[in-house]
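Support case: zinc ion complex. Customer-provided input:
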Amino acid sequence: MKYFIYCAILLVSFMSSSQTNMNLYNIVDSISEERLREDVKTLANFGTRHTLSDTVSETRGIGAARRWIKTQFDNISTACDNCLEVFYQKDLVKKGTNNRIIKDVMVVNVVAIQRGTKYPNRFVIMSGDIDSRVSDPNDFTTDAPGANDNATGMAGTIETARILSQYKFDNSIIYVGLSGEEQGLFGGQGIARYAKAQGWNIVGVLNNDMIGNIKGVDGVIDNRTFRIFSEPITTAETDPEQLAHQNNARRFYGGEVDGTSRQLARYVHNITTTYMPEMNPMMVYRLDRFGRGGHHKPFCDEGFAGIRIMEAHENYTQQHQDIRMENDIMYGDTFEHVNFEYCKKLTTVNAITMASLASAPPAPSTVSIGGIVEPSAKLNWNAVEGAKGYKVYWRNTTSPTWDHSRYVGNVTSFTLEGIVIDNYYFGVASVSANGFESVVTFPNKIER
Ligand SMILES: [Zn+2]
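Agent response - structure generated as follows:
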């Protein structure tokens, strides 16, 4: 009889956690390749979506494109009983701000907020871009379909909204289409500053920019690998907790590759390998590609965690190019070059990461570590409201990912016996009753 009761309890707890996991698997199965194809086609057919292009026409230019995007979010909201707050966020950028702003322009982003039931002011954000360009960055009239760059990221964001709006989450989710990317990251800057002014507590930003190309300019074809770009530490360190890691402190205790954006990148990696084992996420230890930028950067500039999700193999003949035939090569970022199975996979990576993060309690804000000249590592952290327990993570100092972990239950300190502090990096995540984990907090206090 005792045995039976024990088994029954086990079964119930297993079921509750497997049901939660089932939600993420259901999301994996729900993202539609066909809808992504239709949306990218529609976006590419606006002729050009250049930031400085026509805003009056209903069929051509960035005005028509952003109104269409807003209509998609409005329709999604109608279908979920008005679960989205949809609005334009805009800033006037004056002529001459840089050499790509050749006339005054209103940079307009399209924002859709799915309000969290428990933490309405905590946000996980997914972004794609509205705007496109051709060879000359200031040519705002020539056809610039921008099918891969970046209708794919925009369509992925809309599709994620369609699916996740069918669920309720503890944290708020923002789906956003950003403008002005090609002219100097103006849309991201606008919304990041808006977020700061509104006092938004941002858990992380997943910026999607080019998520549909599988054939590299070097001929490599790969429909499994994708890149997660993250900066090592924030350049906007103002939090006194983080000051412990500046300058010499980092030399002695580590932390130079463990900023909040990097932890977010590891989170995406972990979720992907857990729920989409066929994919091959590649951690790239830099803000963005060599000397190039993307719309997560303005968020990072404001001190928020932000990463870029992107195809692994770019094709430069299909990026920022006038449509033309030259030396038997067809140039231009056109619809037929996009691989929608791959676009669907990368959209799914976003959707399950967003769902997991939006279901997780806040990460511990303070984690202290000690264990100098001892055979064990000791960790202490603050209790997080809404956490059922905590998970301690550690990894070899050269590993890009948190390879070892131990769920330690509802405690606020733990000693990893026999794990020598010198040989690993450590961190702590909060875990919800349903098993959803926060991003890992790297120790920000030293115990002597
Ligand atoms: Zn671009």
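Residues 149, 182, 320 surround zinc ion (CB under 6 Å).

Case will auto-close in a few days if no follow-up is received.
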